[in-house]
Amino acid sequence: MSDQTAHDEQPNPIIDPYQKLNIVLNNDGTITRLLKFPDTPASSDPNLAPLALSKDIPLNQSKSTCLRLFLPRKVLDPPPPSKLPLVVFFHGGGFILLSAASTVFHDFCVNLAAELPAVVVSVEYRLAPEHRLPAAYDDAVEALHWIGTAGDDWLRSYADLSNCFLMGDSAGGNMAYQVGLRSVAEVERLRPVRIRGLILQQPFFGGVQRSRSELRLANDSVFPLCVGDLAWELALPVGVDHNHEYCNPMAGGGGSKAADLIGPLGWKVLVTGWDGDPLFDRQAELAKMLEGKGIRVVAHFGVGEYHAVEMIEPSKAKLLFPLPLIVYFHGGGFAVLSAASTIFNTYCLNLAAGLPAVVVSVEYRLAPKHRLPAALPGRAAIGGGGGVSPAGEDPRADTAAAVLWWGPEEWAELRLVNDHMALVCICDLMWEFALPVGVDRDHEYANPTVGGGCQL
């Protein structure tokens, strides 16, 4: 990095990382974890889990690894839902602390499963230094293979294994990236699991050279630099430095060659970060490197927050998944009703809550006082702001819409000429009010098939 300073120029830390992490290094190279973090047991009882059910399943008993599955509670209600995306989640903790059962990660996965909604599989992997990297990566890949071959009823009934995302926070974000790199070489062996993207929440990376954000936030109260250094010292293979590929995705100058294969697979990668995190510059550089390889990257970088804020303040996690925007245009034959009409207001409320999405309902000018194209500039003004596709009702979703949309010779109009919802004579009157004076219903505003269809 051009804006980095040599590792040995970093001022001596004023924080004891062992004390900060509440750990003691033992003579045999293991650590004693003095602080017991709160855990939450899994619960598959719908009466005890209003948002999402959860259960634990052994992965590899010889390694004491397991999976915690999360299922949105609402899928149990009729009618049976379509299959949901699958999110494989890797918890944070610097590779040395915490677990899938830790309350902070359990609660995060409950909310994630309920709000997306999705089936979430949180991986309980082996921790360092008792099991140094790549042990955690190995466990994660083993979990992916298990998911593809297991007969678990939740996965079989509710998860779309062909729509899988790898996600992680901090060290878990590092894992999602590294496991993703491994997975590109195992695409066929992983089927029916098909990875569609990576979600990297403030991923934990490092390097021999210090970045500007690391120097600026060396003594950060949440994640001081010396704590990250200690975590890498305990997690990396013995004898390697911070430019090892597990730690520094930029090692070698251009990143891993495996990353070159992500783009052709069509994966999307979300990278998040906050400028109050010492790792901020590394996260931004990772996103830039991936974009340079032609990978579809969404970089979500914010101001003022700190490392792992999404776990400590759950409300911030919602910022990870910006809602889609739907621009809605109410019906009424261009001549009656409004965005405030109860029927459309109720529809938009249900649409926003059910998807979920941000819904903008446009109050456009009505005919005949304002004939077409008066209503259309509102569509252009809102839809032209950055890739938003206006989304109204399907014109063939009901009788009224079908009669208004199609030309006078269409079978639906002839068959339903006296329909109680939309008499053809009423529709004729609406077009008479709405169309520019002197044109017929083969005008492009009324008949999209005129002249062989609109040439966009």
Give structural notes.
The chain is α/β, with parallel strands linked by helices. The protein has 2 domains: 7-320, Rossmann fold (3-Layer(aba) Sandwich), CATH 3.40.50.1820; 325-452, Alpha/Beta hydrolase fold, catalytic domain (Rossmann fold). Helices cover 31% and strands 17% of the residues. The chain is built from 17 helices and 12 strands. The chain has helices spanning 17-21, 103-115, 135-149, 153-158, 171-183, 187-190, 212-216, 225-235, 262-265, 280-292, 309-312, 314-317, 342-354, 376-383, 399-405, 411-415, 424-434; strands spanning 23-25, 31-33, 52-60, 65-72, 84-90, 119-124, 159-169, 195-201, 268-274, 296-302, 325-329, 358-362. The strands form 3 sheets. An 8-stranded mixed β-sheet has the order 3-4-6-5-7-8-9-10. Strands 1-2 form a two-stranded antiparallel ribbon. A two-stranded parallel ribbon has the order 11-12. Helix 2 links the parallel strand 5 and strand 6. Helix 3 (135-149) packs across helix 5 (171-183). It is elongated. The two termini are 45 Å apart. Mean pLDDT is 84; it is low at 1-9 and 378-417. It holds the Pfam family Abhydrolase_3. Belongs to the 'GDXG' lipolytic enzyme family. Keywords: Hydrolase. This is Alpha/beta hydrolase fold-3 domain-containing protein. It comes from Ficus carica (Common fig).
